[in-house]
Queue: 2 jobs
Job 1
Amino acid sequence: MSAPALPPGASEGGWPMARAMVGVGLVCGLLIVFVYEATRPRIERARAEALRQAVFEVLPGANSSRSFEREQDGHYVPARDGASSAERVHAGFDAENRLVGLALEAAGMGYQDVIRLLYGYAVESETIIGVHVLESRETPGLGDRVESDAGFQANFARLDVSLTADGRVILHPIEVVKPGEKRHPWQIDGLTGATITSKAIGSILRESTLARLPAIRVRLADFVEEVAP
Amino acid sequence: MNTEDFWKGLWRENPIFVQVLGMCPALAVSNTARNALAMGLATLFVLVASNAAVALLRNFVPKQVRIATYILVIATFVTIVDYTIQAISLELHRALGAFISLIVVNCLILGRAEAFASRNSIGRSVLDGAGMGLGFTLALLSLGAVREILGSGSLFGVALFHADFQPWVIMLLPSGGFFTLAAWLMLFGRWRAPDA
């Protein structure tokens, strides 16, 4: 392929090259910042709405929800409006205002990029009852099937995360096993063709449940007392 | 102004059916008409904008760094499209997934920048980008429409058949993309050169 016609001198020396690259890079950078700033409010609003809907998805049986934030002393209080954070706990209540469960956000590295997900924790049965992927860039047709594959999703119908008797740690941390080898309620059947992504989902859930459930469990009253009539 | 710059992308040099470029998004996100249309329009925008920018810069950028500059320009417009689609609909953004970012490596876009925009005026480059982008969109839409009609029994989400219709699930799977593309290529080949 022949090179495009260029004015004489345009290809000589380093200065024109540096000027072109830096100039174009600068303009492109400014353009991206401008678009990012312009679209951010709308994107944040849409994300908040998507999160609200996801709470009901991972907590079947809930028909109202309230968000809580953690205070310095470990207590949970109703979240004030403003920037949402991944530390928030979303409590779901049924028609009689009973606490169905808590929806927690978790994130970790997948195959391509960070995967953000929301999982529903049933307070009474101490199980995970739903997982919803909020954000992922996994390979289309392979890794991203963790969101659509019915068999893989079935892992999260009743995934055991019960605590030890003293309530300090999880009795059996979640583990991912080879497809079809799930024997215990705390195991996740891996997904063929999405090995790394399914393991990532398992470890995101394991790390998050280990880190957060013991602390949340002792504060369950915070969520119930706050129920408005 | 030469209108052939515009029309050639739609028919004589259609990116999908004639040049067979940009197959990755063409096969992957043509499972529904809506996804195909969104992908096509996103590519159309990037193509027109990058063609215009490349034509504008064609006497300013030394040829040794031209490819790097084109990629920078294309990546910028793709990022803009990415944010814009997120602002319009998160659901659509999720459906298109990684393929929005992958518009950067759609060889159709770099191909038009190198083969056309880098040696022609802005006006002609914009026409070329618009024609190619529209040709790409129409081709993607013809793939997406066939796959959605057969695979889900609907078009743009509107059910077309009686409830008894048994959808051909294979049309939504990757293999369905290949079947549909092959059928369209065959049809197009016959149409363009009936004696071949």
Note: Residues 42-225 of chain A form one domain.
Job 2
Amino acid sequence: MSDTDDRQEQAKLAQLIVSTLSLNLRPSDIDVDAPLFGEGLGLDSIDILEISLAVSQTYGVKLRSDDERNVSIFSSLRALNTHIQQHRVR
Amino acid sequence: MEQLPFLRHESLDAVLAYRGGRPVTVGRFLADSAALATALPPCSAVVNTCADRYLFAVGLAAALLRRRTTLLLPARVTGHWEEIAQRYPGHCEISDAGIDAGIDGTPMQQVLAGGPERVATLTLQDFAFPGDQAAVIAFTSGTTGRQMPHPKSWGSLVRSTRAVGKIFGIERLGSAAILGTVPHQHMYGLESALLLATQNKSAFDADRPFYPGDVLARLEALPRPRILVTTPIHLRSLVADAGSAPPADLLISATAPLSPQLAAAAELRFKAPLREIYGCSECGQIAHRRTVRAAEWECLEGFRLRQDERGTLVTGAWTSEETLLADTIELLSPARFLLHGRTADLVNIAGKRTSLFHLDYHLNAIEGVLDGIFYMPDEAADSVTRLAAYVVGAPGVTPEFVIDRLRRSIDAAFLPRPLRFVETLPRDANGKVTRAALRDLATPTPGRTP
């Protein structure tokens, strides 16, 4: 996948997160390398559940906590997008 | 004083828990609890932060054996932890890692290894405690900045979970397995994901799965009959999850009322009846309903409600005194009622409770916040509604700074979303900000970018 494709998919995911959680910011405001949880975007476990639902419905990717990469998946928008692109079925 | 058992199981070989998919027997549990009780250092109270529900149960039984009260504090993630812990000097901490891990810690494995040789000398009768023994203390955010303690006697926990078990027919199901998605350091999780099993000859799963995929997989791995103890938030994601769901035998939900639509969808998906529990930290479990059948709630045996100018008060059963409920209630009879949302000042997000007064206090305590107010938009059924906040900031103060400071003083679930800076708050002639004015602020005028 080219860098341009990556950026486009990251932008789509950012849009999905912003609309799912009714965040008061522009998708482009999300730093692709900042943590989604806690300090960075400040999301909590309820948000993670909401995002996992939206990701499952949009991409057909089901997040699991016994997935060894789980902690790193939510480490940033870039990491979440990479995981989705590797496992998407639609 | 009547002695009330920790377990109702009749055999040491009965399965009490499933840990990592493997069954754990009653005998093993008694041995582990006795070993931990022996290893516990002299202490005034026990803080039990175990995430593993089996270890939590072992810690709770050990504390009861040593006549010590367990403080229901989850992992040290919230700012309240230190404040509460300081109020109980001389307490010790049991965590998944062991006793007082990190200080002069004894690893949990080493503690529990002392168990097996004791098992021959132990009987189920050794694990019965007086009804008036102080068992646990739950905490909620009061209307002031301090966390309010809610002590529970062993008798109130036992009677409450026995009563619900009887109404829900848990024992009739026969050796059920209970899977909970809720934390056991919360009253609902303690009562329904753990004690409901121990008090009704059932087993509990030590795991607390989070993602829908994990919940479904854990549920499927449990033998039937199986019970899922969960919340509207989890149910919504479980119902929306594509693919098939393993059948269950009972679904239990609490923390916020479910819509009849979601309740019906959940019943269809899991081919099981869904029952809701209504309760509060002060009184524990108060009422129940089968959501698809009736909107009204029916009190558990012995509870009575009455209303006066203060609101709705509850008495009876295992509550020691009359308690004012924080919800707007329509009484149909002293034991039947309809819920019409929460009273104005109260905020409940995903089972975590606080007041707007408390939140406003912390917001305005931040340096650089000249004026500030929280606003709870009208809640939509089954989804989580988040708070908003409006702030008049001193020059140079940013929203990021305010959020960062708030994060130190309030639970993350209450962080405002959005936090918006305004030039002034819409105060009326009396200096009050009305809900209507806040609603106008929250709804941007069409044609204008906020």
Note: Chain A has one domain: 3-87.
